[in-house]
Structure formats: structure tokens, C-alpha cells
Amino acid sequence: MGQFHTSAHSVKHATQDGVQLEDGADPLFTFGVIADIQYADLDDGFNFHGTRKRYYRSSLRLLCNANRRWAAERVRPSFVLQLGDVIDGSNRRHGASQRALRAVMDEFGNYAPAVHHVWGNHEFYNFSRSELLSSALNSGAGGDRAGDGVHAYHFSPAPGFRFVVLDAYDLSVIGRERRSDKYELAFKLIKAHNPNRNLNEPPGYRHWIGRFVQFNGGFSQEQLDWLHGVLLGADEKKEKVVVVSHIPVHPLSTDGICLAWNYDKVLSILNSHKSVVCFMAGHDHDGGYYLDTSGIHHLTLEGVIETPPDSDAFGTVYVYEDKMVLKGNGRISDRLLMY
Ligand SMILES: Nc1ncnc2c1ncn2[C@@H]1O[C@H](COP(=O)(O)OP(=O)(O)O)[C@@H](O)[C@H]1O
């Protein structure tokens, strides 16, 4: 179990061993969170710099632990947020992309309720955007989307609450057809900031310039306008909104190398809508947290792939009228998120 971390609020409302609050109130609903599973049927490996171990095979077992726990919750999660990079890019080299995806989806299917899948860079290492749109990872099919082929949509799991899934590789050189307008735009943007031949090599590390690498991406103007519209509607209805994306958007909630290219544009939209209470992301396997000046909790979830087999990396979030309580497991800390 993790430790409670709070910024501005006391922890006295929650216990370490359960969700029961002092007043004994049940949550309005609960949901599961998990990030960067990156499953592959491969022996353990390392990250690019060789500094961090990656437990490719074990990650499926850790997903199984999460599913079992969610299934045993007294208030069963209404849904799970899978924050992207569900299978590892190395599957592609071994012709194992479909097999790995099936293994993960079967595991989710064993216990978990509806799963909302965010798309990360490893999705695009394995599949084209059109393949993703016709795959089990297209969890937004049929809903109000940000545009054709953009994996951004919103849903309301309970009255007064809304979740917005964003597509952080809408503006990207890895997820777009070479001759498309969005590819051209993305290529111009990354080349304007990154002079390296290998665009996965950061141009530097000062002032978050290192974010202009190929394994990151950003949000098109079309998606930003759509987000603004969805949040306007939520403001009017006095809803509380959680926005999710694979890539974090607050520089103080992540290592700068994992930040979205145009994070500042997203932040200014989030900060102009009082409905937004939380932004959740994955991508930075070390995780992070920051409460910004508008009172928005920026939570970056620790990744399953870099979690030792004897630990865990998932959470259950208990939602109340005035707060969300994250109960973390293994590497993930408990957090009280007041709003
Ligand atoms: N500093 C770097 N220089 C060059 N390539 C890099 C660097 N860091 C990462 N990469 C490459 O970028 C891709 C994504 O990096 P990786 O750390 O595997 O991403 P993720 O954390 O999403 O798994 C990999 O192909 C990796 O080899």
C-alpha cells in the first residue's frame, strides 16, 4: 500500500486500510486506473539508457492482480481507465502485436468492467491509426468524438461527473500518414525544435525543450476547440470533469522529457473551466503529482512495465461529492484529491 500524499488538505477523512471514511459514507461510484502495461511475451529488458528494468512478461500478471482486486471491491468499479501503452512496441518486431493485444484484452475481459483505453506511443509502434480504430482499443466508438479518426471522446458515468479522453498523438509523426496535413504540421513543429537526425534524441533538457521528441506528440487545434466546447457544456451543467491523456500536460507533474508538445495550450483551456478537477496521464513511468494554481490535480500514474513482479501498480478511485480518494497499490501512493 502507498502512503497518503496531500497538498493542501488533511488526510483524516480516509483510512489506510480501506475506503471507509469517518462518516461511513459510500462513494458515489468508483473506477480503476492503470498505466503503461507494455506487455510482451519477452524476457525482462531495460529502458533506452539501460538504467531501468522492464518486466515485459510480468506486466500481464500485474494486470491480473489489478483485475482481481477491482472484482473484489465492495463498490465495484464502474469502469477502468487504461492510460495507454497497453502492449510494448517490441511486439511488432516479433510479429506478436495481435497476440499480445489479445492476451491483454482477455485478461481485462476476465474481471474488469468497461475499459476506456487511452492511446500511447506504443499503440502506434504496433498498429496504424486505422487499425486502432477498428480494434478493441477503440473504446470511444459511437460517442461524441473530437473529429474523424481522433481518439478523443467524453462520457458521463454518473450524474454530475464527466470524463474526457484525449488523443495526445493527434499531432504526431508516429501516428499519422506521411502525406497527411497533420503529419506535415507535426513534422514542421518537431523539426523547428529538434535538430537531431534521430528525432527520439532530445534537443536538450532546459526549459522543457526536451519534450520535442518523436515519442511524444500533441493536440490539434481541432481537438483543442472540441475540448473547450465539451468543458463549456460541463461548466453550464456544473459537472466535475476528469481529463485523461497518455502524455502529461503539467511540467511539474512529470519529467519534462515526457511532456506533451503543446502542453501550454491544453493547460490554458483546462484552467479557464471551473468544471475541471483532475488531469490523469501515464507515459512517465516514475509517476508524478502536482496541484496547480486553479486547483486542478495533475496525476501521472506510475507504469506497470517498470514495476517489479513482487509489487503492483494500479489504483482504485473512490468518488465523492467533494473529493476523490485514490487508493494506490504497490508503487502507487494513496492520495486525497479535494475539489
Ligand atoms: N535519449 C534517446 N535518444 C535516442 N532514442 C531514444 C532516447 N530515449 C528513448 N529513445 C527511443 O525512443 C523510443 C521510445 O523510448 P522508450 O523509453 O522506450 O519509451 P517509453 O517510455 O514510452 O517506453 C524507443 O525506441 C527508444 O529507443
UniProtKB/TrEMBL annotation:
Example GO molecular function: CDP-glycerol diphosphatase activity
Q: What is its EC number?
A: 3.6.1.13, 3.6.1.16, 3.6.1.53
CDD domains, per this entry? MPP_Nbla03831 (cd07396)
Which major enzyme category is it? Answer: hydrolase
What are the UniProt keywords, alphabetically? Answer: Hydrolase, Metal-binding, Zinc
Which PANTHER family does its entry note? MANGANESE-DEPENDENT ADP-RIBOSE_CDP-ALCOHOL DIPHOSPHATASE (PTHR16509:SF1), PTHR16509
Would you tell me the protein name for this molecule?
Answer: Manganese-dependent ADP-ribose/CDP-alcohol diphosphatase
Q: Which gene encodes it?
A: ADPRM
